[in-house]
TrEMBL record:
NCBIfam families: PRK13676.1-1
Domain of life: Bacteria
InterPro entries: Com_YlbF (IPR010368), YheA/YmcA-like_dom_sf (IPR023378)
Protein species of origin: Streptococcus ratti
Family of this protein: Belongs to the UPF0342 family.
One Pfam family from the record: Com_YlbF
Protein name in the entry: UPF0342 protein HHO37_07165
Gene3D superfamilies associated with the record: YheA/YmcA-like (1.20.1500.10)
Length: 116
């Protein structure tokens, strides 16, 4: 029996979209898009995250100033009910995504193992 992995991948994509956790992320994202203050803060936060990731990829550690900015963003997000809900719902969905990623990449990890 031949399995079409593309069909399985498409089924998985549809199943993820049907998850209550995905629906929760989608619903709160719509609320954020309708709230200019929340939308602006989230946009600033994601730009800041990309900046930090760029630093980390080049082996640089965040400076004390950047660490203060991280804390400041964390406090602002915690203080905004929509953004707090969004972050929490993303974490819940992330559990599924991490598990799926582990399962999908397991065959490649098995191939990389050496029997030495």
């Amino acid at each position: 029996m031949t399995v079409n992995v593309y069909d399985l991948a498409n089924d998985l994509e549809r199943a993820i979209r049907a998850l209550p956790e995905y629906q929760a992320v989608s619903a709160v994202k719509s609320k954020i898009d309708a709230d200019e203050e929340a939308k602006k803060l989230w946009s600033e936060f994601t730009e800041f995250q990309m900046k930090i990731q760029g630093l980390m990829q080049t082996g640089q550690m965040p400076t004390p100033e950047i660490q203060e900015e991280i804390q400041s963003f964390g406090q602002k997000i915690e203080a905004n009910p929509l953004l707090k809900e969004y972050a929490e719902s993303q974490q819940a969905l992330g559990v599924y995504i991490n598990d799926i990623e582990r399962i999908v990449f397991q065959p490649l990890q098995d191939l990389a193992k050496t029997d030495a």
